[in-house]
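Ticket reopened. Same input as before:
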Amino acid sequence: MQEGVAMYRIRFHGRGGQGMKTASRILGTAFFLEGYEVQDAPRYGAERRGAPIFAYVRVDAQPINERGVITLPDLVIVADDSLVPVPAAGVLTGLDEHTVLLINSDESAETWKDRLNLSSEVLTLPAEAEDRAELRFIGATCTGAAACLLGKISRDALQQAIKEELAQLGDAVIEKNLARALDAYDSMQAHKGCVQTGPEINANDYRKPAWIELPFDDARISAPDIHASANSIQVRTGLWRTLRPVIDYEHCKSCWWICSTFCPDGAITVNGKKPEIDYDHCKGCMVCVAQCPSHAIEAVSEQLAQHQETSS
Amino acid sequence: MTRRLLTGNAAAAWGARLAATDYIPAFPITPQTEIIETIAGWIDQGEMDAKMVTLESEHSMITAAASAATTGVRVFSATSSQGLLYGMEMLYTVSGWRAPFVLVNVSRGLASPITLEPDHNDIMAARDSGFLQIHCSTCQEVLDSTLMAFRLAEDERIRLPVIVNMDGFYLSFTREPVDIPDAETARKFVGDFDPQNIRFRASVPFSQAVAVLGGVPYSYFRYETHLAAQNGIAVYNELSAQFAEHFGRQYPAIEAYQCDDAEIVLVMLGSFATKAKAAVAQMRKAGSKVGLLRPRLLRPFPAELFRSLLAGKSGVAVIDQNISMGMGGVLHSELAGALYGHPHAPPQLLSFIGGLGGRDISLEEFFEIANVTRNAVAEKHTPPPRLLYTEQELREMRKLQAVAQEEARVERDELNNSGDRKND
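Engineering reply: fixed in the latest deploy. New output:
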């Protein structure tokens, strides 16, 4: 452990189910094994597969008093590049010229730099050939790469942390995660230690909070009500989907109720005799796929389906 | 002793385990559920020798906890927010039974609107229930306080249930390095529960928690409970000294940080107080004489210790993470009550309300709170209470409101239009 190291602030972004909480824990444990003080925590609203979540890690030589969301990150890791344009995901919050952005994408770092108008370092993890729904090891890949970029974690500590955090999953899973993490670690050697801690905020020279007096609003305004009905239509939960159910009308027996009845989101309607899936709101839970007695609904990779749509 | 990364929830579970708890009645609620999941796992694996029972509500859970306690066994339970309120009738009831047990509350803002993130209105609602309260700011403190809470609750001078409070997310789901004491030392510190005359048994009937008519017996019983709660200060001081002997960690009833020569003092409860600590450290670097007081004991209220720690200070800023509608911050009122009329009381006592529903408090806001307090001292004028809320935040709020209103209008228009078409 080095004395006098300032605090590292690291933020992971992903979707529920992609293992960002575990990724943050592996990184936290690896730093802890290297003798650092650590704080790691996931942050999510309603716990749902596919919904944006983030997790953060703070690392210091001293006990850590800072808590809660990281507003000025030194390193931001994005496991799923489709989150960047989702405002609720907050991927770009607080990025400045010192922040390193590590993004899992099949597009180039230059493209992302240009697209987001970033002056900071952008590095990519090549998106794996397997589809997004099968990103079972993206957490390990992200952690391995991050461990190298931060420059304070040895390969040994990384391996040990993975073994500890995944102990309950059995040797086979641990081996696969170790392989991905170490590959990612080695792939970032050229950038080892490139993440720098941010500047401290000076108590004599700070931006004053623009506090205001909250005005009185009458209860028609200030009660927590939404006057519009059916406004959840505005929330495109279809963005959460990693798998897409596709109806094969050749095999559909037009029973007109099974898939639509089982759909927990009411995203299947039967117009006339044909069921139709509302892809703006289907979250991709695949309940319909499991329930259809004639096996007429197929699960396909959302990413591949989108690629085909854009190329056709 | 093992040093390991633990969430606040896991730390609470370790506290219950190391205290050799016999019985755990449980009901799940976010963000507390991980506590009972952890304990259930240990019991299942045979690592913890205790009985867990899942109840159908917090009301029943607290009744079960206290009922078990009246048989003389050691009882632990946990809840949060709406759950604490659902059990509120029984909180007030069972403290009067004078049977000790420990309840962990994971603070979370109350409905409405419903939320998951923390503030202290849930635990403040239990303030007058007769439960003693210990408030934690780190995961280590959650484990340690759970051990201390059993001693406090079971002490013959007290014999009241104790709540150990931690903040949802900021502690419950946050991992930090925690020293897990070895079982033997923990056992030695907590000791065996000596239930004295608490021994409700089958076939040995007696009437417990009887009804009374008239204020004379009622006043007696209620005031005796108050006196027992007040004994909590002296007992707490004794046992925190013993805790330090056993484990080397100091937990005074009020944590004082950089206070000896401080002119301005911030006062805050819970885990957000560590953010205040980080801000105080920065202000000290910049040469400002600012300190922080963080009460760990809220019930009993350590009024005398507050008076001595604040004697001669110029200004105090209380940051309440709660709001009593129509009055303001609860801790501010309590501190004003403790200080009023006493010589050497600080001339300026300011009220700030922040962190409601987990709203962040930035470093800059702590700097500004100290600055506003310094100005109040210079101008000898106390500004009105201040909600920590920025222009930008109101703009975001207005945007949400506009969306809701606009949608309502669009909806109505559409309905009207379709109605028109039908009429055509």
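Chain A has nine helices and ten strands. The interface with chain B takes residues 25, 28-29, 32, 37-43, 45, 64-69, 71, 200-204, 206-212, 214, 221, 224-231, 234 of chain A (CB under 8 Å). Please confirm and we'll close it.
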